[in-house]
Design goal:
The chain is an alpha+beta fold and 187 residues long. The protein is 31% helix and 24% strand. The protein has 4 helices and 8 strands; from the N terminus they run H-E-H-E-E-E-E-E-E-E-H-H. A 5-stranded mixed β-barrel has the order 2-3-4-7-6. A two-stranded parallel ribbon has the order 1-5. A hairpin with a 6-residue loop joins strand 3 (57-67) and strand 4 (74-78). The chain is elongated, with a radius of gyration of 24 Å. It starts with a helix and ends with a helix.
């Protein structure tokens, strides 16, 4: 009977920990770096206007590529740093706004965050910005989304799903084992 109580308490603790995962995570950016350093750290640098926004991403019509030239005229970018959690470094897009975006390729998806040097551009880039970035290149003209790559599967929206499935399976096995042992003692 004592083993049963210990096992039940253990299972309750594990389920409690799994069901109360944080939805907000605090993080902070390292000290600001120069525009040249932001460009060096990025895989792709674009100037573009946000045309639509979903819960986790934005569609951007690219005007110029400053790094990674020859890309499509329309890209999908996520500003969410961590799937399943809101962080203080998430980059929030606003529709119909123009941005200079510093992007990273991550498993076939274009990502950015508030620490990568992105900035809203009201009309045109300043001469200081252009001195660092260069003149830029026009997009290739196609509307292929860089974030989709053949053969790559999207990850589930909750990165802990596999852990929760395994733990749930172990929980069910534990309950079955205790019940079976109890039935064996009655016989």
């Amino acid at each position: 009977m004592r083993l049963k109580n210990v096992l039940l308490a253990f299972l309750i603790v594990i389920l409690s920990l799994l069901s109360f995962s944080p939805s907000h995570v605090l993080a902070s950016c390292a000290p600001a770096v120069s525009l040249a350093e932001y460009k060096d750290q990025a895989d792709i640098v674009v100037l573009g206007q946000v045309t639509s926004i979903s819960d986790t991403s934005a569609i951007v019509n690219v005007e110029l590529y400053f790094k990674g030239h020859g890309g499509p005229s329309q890209i999908e970018v996520t500003g969410q740093e961590s799937k399943g959690a809101v962080t203080s470094v998430d980059f929030t897009f606003e529709e119909n706004r123009k941005y200079l975006l510093f992007l990273k390729m991550d498993s076939g998806n274009l990502k950015t965050n508030a620490c990568m040097g992105n900035k809203e551009v009201s009309d045109a880039l300043t001469s200081e910005d252009l001195a660092v970035l260069g003149t830029g290149y026009s997009p290739s003209g196609n509307t292929q989304d860089l974030s989709s790559s053949e053969g790559s599967e999207r990850q589930p929206s909750n990165p802990n799903i596999n852990f929760m499935l395994v733990t749930g399976g172990l929980l069910i096995l534990g309950v079955v084992a205790v019940s079976w042992k109890k039935l064996q003692k009655k016989r």
